[in-house]
Amino acid sequence: MEEYRVANRELAPMGFKKIDWAWHAMPVLRFLEEREKERLPLQGVTVACCLHLEAKTACLLQVLHRLGATVAAAGSNPLSTQDDVCAALASSGVHVFSHHGMSAAEYGENLRRCLAWNPQVLIDDGGDLVALIHEERRDLIPRLRGGCEETTTGIKRLKAMEAEGALQFPMLAVNDGLSKHLFDNRYGTGQSVWDAILRTTNLLVAGRVVVVVGYGWCGKGVAKRASGLGARVAVVEIDPHRALEAFMDGFEVLDLRQAAAVGDVFVTVTGNTQVLREEHFRLMKDGALLANAGHFDVEVCIPHLKALSVEVWDSRPQIRSYRMEDGRTLHLLGEGRLVNLAAGDGHPVEIMDLSFALQLLSALHVHQNDLTPGVHKVPEELDRRVARAKLDAMGLRLETLTPEQETYLASWRE
């Protein structure tokens, strides 16, 4: 088995500096490591991870390794992989397989190299490790304790597998934990998407019409931050309750054809395919910006863009421009991949401290308990433990109920 496959081991010093910067802003992860390190709870366990390989993720991978695990990691996105961080991970004992800009074929091979370490626990981002095991490495299933999934898209795939009776081992739906989706999806996505768009385009947001397609937790964050930057925000939804919520939050609600004609910036956050497609591209303004904040690069239909274009070029790093026959030009950010990671550094460190702390506790829970095959909720106590630790780290205190109040809430008599 290969120990690692990275672009350049000599980049490790810069990678270690990035990891150190992130580590000092992750008090919950540090607290959990300090509490667990004496007993080495993952001694003898192999953990396979498919995650965005950047500095914050590296902190989680190193904690898993220091708690005794053999860790094999593959990058979940070719543009979010940071080569210096991968080099640092390889130098610190993590078996990492990824490089920035890897092809789809290389991505698949890196997942296979990761699984060659015969894991007992998985940490997945998008469901590709789980799918590959069921399609090619079913021999691993008897030894798997289970795993964790941290994205909305991945959980949708897992639930589809469960509904078909295909999912053969337990997976914890980490994304559905309160410490994950209330903060990571809303505040993390909200800030990091606009950080990436602003640094990539160097254009003003105030006064522009921003179209947010999808008003789940991620969409709420993107819309709120766009509004805070002075944009006029329109939301596109298929769900009536979410559409009403967007309207009552102060945003215009349009269907996608209406929005296509008026939008200056489009951000897809749906987890679906071909969300922006030919019929919408034909209606868009000259100079419209197209960005995706959903997991896979299928929400903006790139084949349709190419078919409509007479010329394609890179205007700036991470901006590909498509000129239509009528002279209009549409600009795609980050190759249609997760814009906050493809064109930025992803979520703020303090947000990922919550998410990766929940991932760590969930991985320990999967390893230490016999769970039935299927999709499981993260135990509430684990979720609350992460939130309490974050409050403590920030110096914030909770109110406590008096005995009389507890009795009152537990009684049905007046």
From TrEMBL:
The keyword Hydrolase applies. It is found in: Cytoplasm. Keywords: Cytoplasm, Hydrolase, NAD, One-carbon metabolism. Residues 185-346 form the S-adenosyl-L-homocysteine hydrolase NAD binding domain. Its cofactor is NAD(+). InterPro entries: Adenosylhomocyst_ase-like_sf, Adenosylhomocysteinase-like, Ado_hCys_hydrolase_NAD-bd, NAD(P)-bd_dom_sf, S-Ado-L-homoCys_hydrolase_CS. NAD(+) binds at residues 151-153, 185, 214-221, 237, 272, 293-295, 340, 347. SUPFAM superfamilies: Formate/glycerate dehydrogenase catalytic domain-like, NAD(P)-binding Rossmann-fold domains. The keyword Cytoplasm applies. This is Adenosylhomocysteinase. It comes from Aminomonas paucivorans DSM 12260.
